[in-house]
Amino acid sequence: MSWVTVIWAMIASACLTLGMMNLVIWVQQARRRAHLLFSVTAISVAAVAGCELLLMRAQTTEQFGTVLKWAHVPVFFTFVSIVGFVRLYLRAGRPWLGYSVCGLRLLVLIINFLSVPNLNYKEITGLRHLATLGGETISVAEGMRNPWIKLDELSVLLLLVFVADASVTLWRRGDRSERRRALIVGGSTTFFILEAAGQAELVNEGLIQAPYVISLPFLAMVAAMGYELSQDVLRARRLSDDLRESQQRMALAVDAANLGLWVWEASKDEVWMTDQGRALFGFGPKTRLDYAILISRAHPDDRAMRDATLKRAVETQGEYAMEYRVLLPDGTLRWIGARGRCINVEDGKGIRLFGVSMDVTAQKESQDALRESEARFRALADTAPVMIWMSGPDKLCNFFNQGWLDFTGRSLEQEFGNGWAEGVHREDLDRCLEVYVNSFNGRQSFTMEYRLRRCDGEYRWVLDNGTPRFATDGTFLGYIGSCLDITDRKQAEERFRLAVEASPNGMVLVNAQGKIVLANACLEKLFGYEIRELIGQAVELLVPERFRSNHLAHRAGFHTAPVARAMGAGRELFARRKDGTEFPVEIGISPIQSPEGTLVLSVIMDITERKRAEFEAQQHREEIAHLSRLAIMGEMAGSLAHELSQPLGAIVTNVGAALRFLERDNLSAEKLRELLQDIAADGKRAGEVIRTVRGMGRKEAGARRLLQLNDVIAEVLRLTPSDALGHHCTVSIDLDPLLPKVDANSVQLQEVLLNLIQNAFEASEAVPRARRRVIIRTERDSDYAVRVSVRDFGPGLPLELPERVFERFFSTKTEGLGIGLFISRSIIAAHGGTLSAENAEGGGAQFWARLPVSKEINL
């Protein structure tokens, strides 16, 4: 036997073996249609290999043409089965393209049998015998090519496009196993079809002298397809093993959970049930079961419900779940929890109803006991004088008592979940939810106040106290809370707070523990703290450190005999600001009795200005005294000269005497000592006279100091009421109460402000009296500067050059000298600031004076 015969016989045998193996798999498992299509492909490739062997052994042209004609039949089945396999196994490929391949291949087959001698050749003129290895010869046809062969080539091209498109689609799905299929099945099929088509085309075109050998690449293609199918079989085997092991585990779990499994085969009306199931329903191990016997165990009151539920599952072929009672032959009543589903089995056995049953008697009894407990709790909660709510571990409220529903006028369904939040005032909602969520996450109790809408639409203040709930084993169950209407108390507190806020002095309310519970805005200004920083702090925070230890004892002594009185009578009191500075104060304290115990209301008055005024008055008195002294010294100029002339004359006399003694050379040491002592005494007396004169004429002066700009404005405004009335002007002020201080000369700032205000009064004369207004405003310009503005509603500044008003000798008034604003700008510039002007929106002029904030600590 020649080697050619052996090789092609092996190709055919391998393909037939693979085809028969997969055909057997399909016969045993009809759902595996991919194996059927693969077996058709493999058997067709075996037939193609047989035809190729016959072609190589042909002796005549007629024999060659006949074999080549019939070779198109297995090629047709190969193409069709490949299209079906790719479409079914890869679950990809455009259907219209697959139909086009099959239809075109069928047309090629028909034309092939209508052509003489076949589709490939229009005429075979002869055979050429080619020598191969070992001296063996094979036959190759020579003749005229049939033009219909182009249809064959087109069908091959369409098949390549179909397979490539399906492979790309599968690859793009991204799944790892699908990409492997696309590469092994789609890639190998595309490659080997292309190789086979290329070899056939070269033979048809006569470019190579060789027989048709498309079975070799087709064999490789079949091997790749078979490999992938075999992997599926192996995976299915592993899945089967895993399923068997899973079933064993499930059986153990069912036994451990005491579950009863049963299956009702509708076509035979037979019920299969596990031993646990039979025990649940009171059936013996050998009792034959059917649907009627099974339903007879249900309680008479539950049979109709159970039967309707199962029938609905059968009709819809869906799932079911129910609980019902069974009545055992010994009279025992048992609750059963059942779940299952209906399946239409594809193995020809029809509809089956699968079910699992479980004894839930203990759970039902527990539920009944729980319902009874909940009923008692609800009765108690509904009669409670407060509003009660409960929430689950999911933060959603699941209970409200009747008091809550009566208050809100809403139903349980409306309040459940987060519905209750619809009644919370929108200004309080975010804060309310934040407290609730943060406490919930931390499993902590909370207390909060918010406004809740009552059934009549009025928002009422409520005090909400929430506490986490835990089971006996520590499991978190949610929260329970109570709400109390505190609107009346809040209104009383608000009236008290308004009275405190209206006080021109700082007021602070302290509890028995010395903690601050209330403070007014004036206290903020006095001490520099924000109210939120003070609440809850010890009142000693406002006391200088050197007095704190004694203050604790004084506070304790006051609580032993609380009575309204002035604090620290006869002593100077000092308070401490946030920045550490101290200032003199007067304090009055009054006890207030409350449910929380004795509260102490302290009224704190800053007497710094009084002290300063007293100091300034003292200075004025000293200045008057100084002027008086200067006048007296002027009147005493003659006597002062006389007082100085006497010691000076004595000094001159003693010096002259000493000189004369020296000329005579009879000045002894004792005499010289006496003369020098007299000279020193006279000089000392003259020096005392001079120091007295200097002391009487000395005057200490400080040009700048820390000033509150608002206070300087207030001092200036005390000088302007008459001018305002004379010009029929109204003065309005808008002063920033938190304005920082500046380092300035008070008299010079007064001069600037007075000049700006007077100019505003005079500018207002040009407009009707109804529009004669002057507005003075202070504000922070930044963290480093403040500014004051004076605005009038007069004719305004020159439109072309508003800055000219600051030029020397420029004036818009007929009587003006034009130096007031020039001097004012110079003063502000000397203080490191700026003075500017602009025409204000709505008419009039507006002047801005900007001053730097003092770098020193504010007092």
Labels describing this entry:
alpha+beta, 859 residues, five-stranded antiparallel β-sheet, six-stranded antiparallel β-sheet, single chain, 25 helices
Report on the architecture of this protein.
- This protein has 859 residues and is an alpha+beta fold.
- The chain contains 25 helices and 25 strands.
- Strands 13, 14, 15, 16, 17 and 18 form a 6-stranded antiparallel β-sheet that branches. A 5-stranded antiparallel β-sheet has the order 4-3-7-6-5, with helices on both faces. A 5-stranded antiparallel β-sheet has the order 9-8-12-11-10, sandwiched between helices.
- Strand 16 (573-576) and strand 17 (582-594) form a beta hairpin.
- Helix 5 (149-172) packs antiparallel against helix 6, helix 6 (176-204) runs antiparallel to helix 7 and helix 22 (709-717) packs across helix 24 (746-763).
- The chain starts with a helix and ends in a 7-residue tail after the last strand.
- The relative contact order is 0.03.
Q: Portion of residues in helices? A: 40-55%
Low-confidence stretches: 624-640, 695-702
What is the radius of gyration computed over CA atoms, rounded to a whole number of angstroms?
57 Å
Shape: elongated
Separation of termini?
123 Å
Q: Could you tell me the number of beta strands?
A: 25
Count of helical stretches: 25
Strand content: 15-25%
What's the main sheet like? 6 strands, antiparallel
Average pLDDT value?
80
Structural class: alpha+beta
